[in-house]
Amino acid sequence: MSIETKMAWRNIWRNPRRTILTGCAITFATVLLVFMLSFQFGSYETMINTSVKISSGHLQIQAEKYQEKKSIRLVIPEPRAIAEIVDQIPEVAAYTFRGQAFSLISSKDRTYGVVVTGIDPQKEITVSRIKKLVQAGNFLAAEDVNQALVGNLLAKNLRVSIGDELTLLGQGRDGSIGATVVQVKGIFRSGIDEFDRSAMQIPLSTFQDTFSMEEAVHEVVVIGKSLSDVSRIKTQLKAALSVLDNRKPLKTLDWQELMPGLRQAIEMDLVSGLIFYGLLIIVVAFSILNTFLMAIFERTKEFGVMMAVGTTPRRLTKILLIESMSMTLISIITGICIGIGITYYFQIHGIDFSGGSELLSQFGITGRMYPKLSLLSVSIGPFMVLFFTFFAALYPALKVRRLRPVEAMTAI
Amino acid sequence: MNQLAIKYIILILLLTLTFISPCPALDADEIVTAGFNYWRGKASVGTVEMLIHREDWQRSMTIKAWTRGQKDSLFYIAAPPKDYGNGTLKKGREMWIYNPKVNRVVKVPPSMMSQSWMGSDFSNNDLAKSDSLLLDYHHSIIGTETHEGKTVYIIKSMPKPNAPVVWGMQHLKIREDQIWLSEEFFDEDLEPVKIMTAMEIQMLGGKLFPRVWRMRNVDEQDRYTQLTYESLEFKSSLPDRLFTLSSLKQRRR
Description:
By secondary structure, chain A is α+β, with helices and mostly antiparallel strands. Chain A is 57% helix and 19% strand. By secondary structure, chain B is α+β, with helices and mostly antiparallel strands. The A-B interface holds A 73, 102, 104, 106, 110-113, 167, 169, 171, 174-177, 179-181 and B 52, 57, 59, 77, 80, 82-83, 86, 97, 99, 101-102, 104, 106-109, 111-112, 115, 118-119.
């Protein structure tokens, strides 16, 4: 151990109470940052996964411009060809076909405009959680015809319950008028009001008959094995689709493009989080600055003596920096350890959000929330603390260089 | 002479006067009301071919239409066979749709009134609120031009305060012989949205009438809906029972 390190180490413990207090501030900030960031990242993943599993899927293949226009005419004419492509991508966990049409739905005395989705009941359950969301009645079965699932708010608005008939009126793919009568088989509740108020699902075969779709569908919904696979699947799909000979170009969209609202909500939450963390780090940095400035004022006489016996200002700066950095490092490491411990506990046991606010329920978060530890969430906060405390410590360390030995020795 | 006869004479005198005098200082409100009434007639029965044109696709339907006064209309699709028998009843500002396949009548909810009617460029509101132009707007003449040797009044219609209107402004072109030449619709920012133009003015149902009407979105040249009258007959009245829900449900020939 060099002389500087030895001196610095001893200096740290000259006033243990102050050192421990400052250290605790840094440790606390680190713990908070590790936990909060893990929690935020975890909640984003929950939000994405729940939203994705209710409606959009991780990725969708659609006809070009379908996402903007939602016109029934913008179809994927041969979904089987797409299925062959998707089957060959190893990262894909599941996929399904859907058709969508805006229609008038009316019960005996009420009429609403609703997005009717045609789903393949067997494949749908591998992609979405809809089956688990069915509150009353049953999910569609493979052989069902003219049966429907409706959202609980829509059912309430239409004043229908299981077994009631609904008339469906819309426009078919060829411009003709599509009409049919369906029976309510199940009522689902996702917790996302918008979805529960305006969604209705019918078997894809019924959908295709009613809206003169023939074989065509509007969306191929793809779920990857994990969220991180999405970009890889997207590149592969894009490459495969561009080779496919199609009269109308198809487009691959990921969840961010499918649900821009969700991405914006995440970005907004992240920014407000970052502001909070920024404030936290600044407070910690000032407390470090304070500690070291105090130390210098206290030790002016000592520095004077050291300079008088030949210590170079450079060496003094070095000692002071080693002091502050080792203290910060120890605190940060302790903080990371405690932070990981706490986060890990909640990662397993979850945090109860069952009283979840309206805002959260919009994103499908209704039960427990789980923070998620990742290299990023564990390292980014502590690194920022280290970075800012270094600058806070630099100022007093450089200030020492301007001391004059004689004046310093006479200082109190 | 009794009082009634005097009234009649005065009325006839007034009417002849209006016909004789060139009457340059016409009131805009009168022009619009007269034009509208000329267009709709007291009652009419007609067959219209509706062509929905899109960039890559088009489709036509034959519609049988009954109208009465300014408010009541009944439409039936006669062709293509796939859509045969679909009907729309408009009474006042309410609309109902009938579909023969499911044999149900559905009332169009207020939230759906801005949706397109049968996939055309006409919205349900365009049909249901057609008389809104007379009731909810102030009209003023902003210019004149000539068309086939006749004066055409260009009229600016601004909504009355608090009127439940769809459009922020409308520009009308009405010829002096009361023929409606065009109607342009503007949004609340006074940006043009769509325009309906009348073409091929000829004798139809006993009077000069534009045979072709075209509704087009202002920013899309290749997207329009065109109505062509195949036949049109003006009547002095149509029975009440025609404009009822039970009449809507009846299958038509």
